[in-house]
Amino acid sequence: MTPDTKITALLDRLAALPSLAVAFSGGADSALVLAAAVRALGSGRVLAVTAVSDSLAAEELDAARRFAASLGVRHLLPATAEIEDPRYRANGRDRCYFCKSEVLDVIGRVAAEHGFAHVATGTNADDAADPFRPGIRAADERGVLAPLREAALTKAEVRRAARAWDLVTWDKPAAPCLASRVAYGLEVTPARLNRIETAERSVRRLLARAGLPVTDLRVRDLGDRVRVEVSADLTSRAAGLPGLVPAVREAGFPGAPVEVAAFRSGVLNTEPSRR
After folding, report:
1. Is CATH 1.10.3720.10 correct for 3-164?
2. Measured CA distances, 196 to 70, 118, 248, 249, 261 (Å)
3. Would you say the pTM of this structure is higher than 0.90?
4. The CATH classification of domain 178-270, taken from the options 3.30.300.10, 3.40.50.800, 3.30.1330.60, 3.30.365.10
5. Which of 170, 227, 236, 247 is an S-S bond match for 163, by CB 3.0 to 4.6 Å?
6. Across-strand partners of 195?
7. Domain residues of the chain, as ranges?
8. From first to last of its 275 residues, what are the pLDDT tens digits of the chain?
């Protein structure tokens, strides 16, 4: 199918539903699902639900609020408690399964309480092809819809459609949860997530002040050290900024060795567990 045919299939699939609650993270994928649902069903039959927890950066929540408001969609922000699950805190390679289980159970209850018949995520065709996606299993076990996956829309095609629809998220960099920055085997705690968020915010501001364009940025908590990952073409200039290491240490990593490296999506999946 062509990308346009896939978008037509997406809209037809959504139009066949009585109503839909979208598990809305604020990222490009779930934003397209939300916008498509509004086109297919009208804003009154669509609900945006963003799970709020320690692993969601405040900047991401603010952006999600603005986007939902721009579509005229009701937006609910239930708190989730994955941090209370010892299996999640243990941070094994199945951490995302326990997180998504909690998040989707909460969103499912919220949807039912407000009379919405179905829940959908922004899982796309590329996500489904990734062998390391335990969160997808949690969604499938709960019967959660994945309309982008059903329409075989890839990430590139999602961005193409979002741009054609003038969605501000069309070129939004991927922003997985803060826990994805913690090396496997290190306990996930609110304090650990908070210092990662603070460090990323500080580094982002430092790079912006230096005139360095920031797209992908991660501060990885590796236990015995910290790795700041930026776009490959920025690594040498970022590493040379005198304020970078102090900014990271002041964020909550006192004395930790700080290294700068090229950004690699999902890199912790390929590195040894710190357990």
Report:
1. no
2. 29, 34, 9, 11, 16
3. yes
4. 3.30.300.10
5. 170
6. none
7. 3-164, 178-270
8. 899 999 999 999 999 999 999 999 999 999 999 999 999 999 999 999 999 999 999 999 999 999 999 999 999 999 999 999 999 999 999 999 999 999 999 999 999 999 999 999 999 999 888 767 889 999 999 999 999 999 999 999 999 999 999 999 999 988 899 999 999 999 999 999 999 999 999 999 999 999 998 889 999 999 999 999 999 999 999 999 999 999 999 999 998 999 999 999 889 988 888 86
